[in-house]
Amino acid sequence: MAYETTSESTEALLVTGGVGTGKTQRLVERAAALLAENAAAGNVLVLCATPQAARLFSERLTARVGAKRAAGATVATARALALDVLADDGARRWSGREPRLLTAFEETFLMEDMKVSGLRPKRLREMLKFFYRSWTELADDDPDWLLPGEEADVHTLLKENLVFMRAVIEPEAANLAARYLREHDEARAAHSYAHVLMDDYACASRASQTLANLVATCSITVAGDAETCIETYDSYPYAAGIDEFLATHPDAACEHLDADAPDAVERVALASDTPEAEFEQVARTVAEAVAAGTPARQIVVAVPNSVWSRNIATALHARGVPTEALAISQPLRGDVRDNARCTPARIATALNLVANPDDTAAWRCWCGFGDYLVNSAAFASLRTCAKERSIGLVDALEMLSENDCEHVVGAQRVATAYKDGRALIEQVRGLRGTALLDELTRIVSWRSGGVTVAAK
């Protein structure tokens, strides 16, 4: 079913074509034309598939129209737009959340809190994946999308845990933002742009696609290829969105670009017999392009894994080409059940608490580190207690620290962790920059049970 998300007067343009046919450049030209027509820069929104793509688009737009004119145009990701919407005070009250995405290690705590449902871990993971995909596809618009009983109960528990943490998980962000704007006309007007352009439309989730349409008032231009529907930044990209766009905008203008288009990318195949030869060949090709005048920051080398990334970077450095290796995965790893094995995650959590002592999700994690079940039973009891008293997680932790909720299972462990966290915040008060990081590292490492070595 296609969603009516824009008015009948909204001008629509669909640009299709395979990889390298110039779709992004067509959007750059479209944005430049809108700015040249004296469209207010603040009324032009460009949504790209990833933060890296947004940065490159901004550079290309600046080169086309100049820094002064391009500076006011908003170039971002659909996720950034969703979090901006959810940052509204009204959205906070409506959702019971902060515009705060859980990181990968923080989702570990959410998963443990979900295990109190009694489901086997494999069954629970499968059910959560079903929920996540359904959210990205806006399946929850149908009030009967869940089966009564176990499925509905687990979904309710998931939502309650997220509200208790006052956090959002990635597959949910655009869903919440789209629902909020649909239900609140004033908020939709506040977040609207006269002209919206969205690149790699098929690589976005259905919720992100819908959000882009919701905020467009005068024109919506999208570019994509249903055959190139891959997960890049959004979970569960939605290829059928292109057909739905045409169904929603029956009068949309359509442009198809092919390999012969003026802005199509030249394709050259490089063959190598060994990985080492491939690294050298790629480095030589890039070095030649830089020597010919192509800025190094406009060159991207896609690699299959971190090993290839390191070797390509080494080969490029050997040829004097400045290189930036993008992170392939989140670096904060380790077993959150063992303090000594998750020091980086604990330091990051401590830093969050220092930056915002009311960061509810950070407190949930801080008070769960080092326990085999991350104190999930205690937090299940604490959530029930907090619900009965109509208070949040941080207030419930304060209550524990004052011995006002002794019936909570594992209360003492959680209360002790909470007091340690408050003491840590006070201990580093006034510190900034490297001094803050050094002191947090010292405190957290010492509390992890590691050996302390100090100079005389």
Give structural notes.
- Helix content is 51%, strand content 8%.
- The protein has 20 helices and six strands.
- It has helices spanning 23-36, 51-65, 67-70, 78-86, 89-95, 104-114, 121-136, 150-165, 170-183, 185-190, 206-214, 241-248, 275-291, 306-318, 343-355, 360-366, 376-389, 393-401, 411-427, 433-447; strands at residues 11-17, 44-48, 74-77, 193-198, 216-224, 253-257.
- The protein has a six-stranded parallel β-sheet with strand order 3-2-4-5-1-6, sandwiched between helices.
- Strand 4, helix 11 and strand 5 (216-224) form a beta-alpha-beta unit.
- Helix 17 (376-389) packs across helix 18 (393-401).
- The radius of gyration is 25 Å and the shape is globular.
- Mean pLDDT is 90; it is low at 450-456.
Provide the fold topology:
Layout: E1 11-17, H1 23-36, E2 44-48, H2 51-65, H3 67-70, E3 74-77, H4 78-86, H5 89-95, H6 104-114, H7 121-136, H8 150-165, H9 170-183, H10 185-190, E4 193-198, H11 206-214, E5 216-224, H12 241-248, E6 253-257, H13 275-291, H14 306-318, H15 343-355, H16 360-366, H17 376-389, H18 393-401, H19 411-427, H20 433-447
Parallel strand pairs: 1-5, 1-6, 2-3, 2-4, 4-5
Helix pairs in contact: 1-2, 4-9, 4-11, 6-17, 7-9, 9-11, 13-14, 15-16, 15-20, 17-18, 18-19
Give the strand line-up of the largest sheet.
Answer: 3-2-4-5-1-6
- Helix-strand sequence: EHEHHEHHHHHHHEHEHEHHHHHHHH
The helix-and-strand class reads alpha/beta
How many individual β-strands? 6
Low-pLDDT stretches are 450-456
Helix content: 40-55%
Largest sheet: 6 strands, parallel
Tally of alpha and pi helices: 20
Rg, Å, rounded: 25 Å
Integer average pLDDT: 90
